[in-house]
Amino acid sequence: MPISVEPLFSPFTVKSLIVSNRFMMGPMTRSFSPEGIPGPDVAAYYERRAQADVGLIITEGVGVDHPAALGSSGIDEVEIPVLYGVEALQGWRAIVDKVHAAGSRIMPQLWHQGVMRIPGTGRHPDAASSRPSGIWGTLDRRSSMPSDYVAKVAEPTQPMSEGEIADIIDAFARSAANAAKVGFDGIALHGGHGYLLDTFLWAGTNRRTDSWGGDHVGRTRFVVEIVKAIRREIGSDLPIMYRYSQWKQQDFDALLATTPGELGEVLQPLCDAGVDIFDVSTRHLSKPAFAGSGKTLAGWTKHVTGLPTVAVGGAGLRKDIYDSHRSGSEADNLDKVMTVFNRGEFDLIAVARALMTDPQFVLKVRNGQESKPFNPEILASKTLYWALFRHQSGR
Ligand SMILES: Cc1cc2nc3c(=O)[nH]c(=O)nc-3n(C[C@H](O)[C@H](O)[C@H](O)COP(=O)(O)O)c2cc1C
Q1: Share of the chain above pLDDT 90, in %
Q2: Nearest protein CA to atom 31 of ligand 1, as residue
């Protein structure tokens, strides 16, 4: 007898955001916004998911208003959208309106690639890549990145200056203000996977001994200042969602916190600064986070912060994002999702690949229908993301 999914069809509220069910479309980078401007095809892509009962959509990563925010990060010919400039904002407004008309909610994922951007690439090739201590990461660790990419980022660069840090904090605040103006329902921050915000939190890339580094609490300061600056711009009603991860693309085994106590110390400054909900990025949503307990990282995050959480990692599929690179993943592991949800460890379930493959995924879950399996053939070409971008074109 399958476990009931009905509890996932109850509403969820945080601040002014009311979501009709617990399904959130996870952020998935796309490359379909020439000059950074999302057009009608991008609007249709999100509208399709909104019309098929996705409660909350987190957009693809969107570049903040800073010259080094975007560039090549292992993918060529990127056309990643931005959150500044009249035309891009018009594009986003049309997307927000369509999603709202379909009864769904939407937040942009604000993104600065930081160390992952290959120096000299992007629309501002002269801009230095933003690295807290000039290093890309621990080059000898188990990484998800291809060796030809790593060769291009391995050379150390200048650590970020005080001026650069201040500029980037302002850039996040300006882009968040733009998001609020065009009607988004909150701000989602990409604080994981080894991109800029994460590289301040992680000891592997933040070796600073000034006030932007130090111990695990000192390393939170950059993110804290960004969250505070965003809060000043958007006011008190709109929620701020912060995505973090223990793992990095530079190092699968990296840890921001080795114990629940340490996790609390890292996350508390972010809560105090104004984060309302944590999107806890794991590759296996039901995997225990620390030895001695079956609790997941989303569960521990909720426990130590008292804030709502999002769980992610294989919802609707049986394999994680990197394992499915090698072999297929049939659909439907909702029993696993429900087991963790019924233990009270998360509030929203993020679904990424399953919703990319099948825009009707949530409707099908509701109706007890099978959704399309995830097809490994789409991952057959050179890089995972590049193949996935291509695959998304017609959908
Ligand atoms: C094509 C693709 C692009 C992604 N881009 C982003 C991104 O821009 N920001 C982000 O935080 N995560 C990104 N992710 C990770 C997903 O949000 C999600 O955490 C991951 O795929 C695991 O969820 P899933 O098992 O439901 O696919 C991406 C994943 C895929 C497959």
Answers
A1: 78
A2: 353
Could you tell me the two tokens for 20? 């009709």
For 183-204, the pLDDT digits (tens) are 999 999 999 999 999 999 999 9
Residue entry with tokens 């992952």 = 116
Select from 58, 190, 284, 353 the residue to mutate for testing ligand 1; criterion: most ligand atoms less than 8 Å from CB.
353
User: Ligand 1 center to residue 214 CA distance, Å?
Assistant: 30
Distance CA 211, CA 218 (A): 7
CB-count burial class (<10 Å; 0-12, 13-18, 19+) for 391: middle
The encoded tokens of residue 333 equal 């592991």
Q: Round to whole Å and give the CA distance between 125 and 120.
A: 4
Distance, in Å, from the CA atom of 97 to the CA atom of 119, rounded to the nearest integer, reads: 36
Q: How many residues does the chain have?
A: 395
Q: In the structure encoding, which two tokens stand for residue 223, read together?
A: 């993110």
122-155: pLDDT as tens digits: 889 999 999 999 999 988 888 878 888 899 999 9
Give the span between the Cα atoms of 335 and 319, in whole angstroms.
14
Write out the catalytic residue numbers. Answer: 195
DSSP string, 116-136: GSPTT-SS-TTSPP--SSS--
Tens digit of each residue's pLDDT (9 = 90 or more) over 339-351:
999 999 999 999 9
Give the whole-angstrom CA distance, residue 330 versus residue 324.
10
End-to-end CA distance of the chain: 34
Verify whether ligand 1 is closer than 6 Å to residue 321 (CB atom).
yes
Closest ligand 1 atom to residue 283 Cα is 22
H or E segment at 62? strand 56-63
What confidence tens digit (pLDDT) does each residue in 303-321 have?
A: 999 999 999 998 887 555 5
- The DSSP code for 296 is B
Which residue's CA is the closest to the ligand 1 atom numbered 30? Answer: 28
